[in-house]
Amino acid sequence: MREELRVAAYAICVRDGLLLLSRLSGRGRDDGKRWTLPGGGMDHGEDPYDTVVREVAEETGYAVEPTALLGIDSMTRRHARRLGGVADLHGLRIVYEARVTGGELRHETDGSTDMAAWHPLDAVPSLDRVSLVDAGLALWRERPSAGRAADRE
Asked: I need a labelling partner for 148 at 20 to 30 A (CA). Which of 10, 71, 97, 126 fits?
């Protein structure tokens, strides 16, 4: 089985009790149209800080400033490869706290997400979401000194 490593950077943006999320477009993904944190994969040679700024702008229309490195979520899963077969994916997801500094909310077109929206924090558990949302919120709430949420230890 092919092994794949994907490093990505994501943002937790909370404002007035609302969390900014992006919805996966469902095209070619196992996750379907589920909510996720805005962010995504690093380009070769790109700094994770620059990745999260770029990805949030692409997916939501907002300019953001990362204000804290919250930690890293590590996950593994098997997924179908585009040309057939199965791969063992290891995802390293770098999570930042970020604040919106400009721009206007808009939806991404022709990307991995198709919608962006603010959701009340207390409504997030009822959303159809990927595990990254819960992992990121745990890092945001706990702010662990080791950069790893308690439930992941």
From this structure: 126
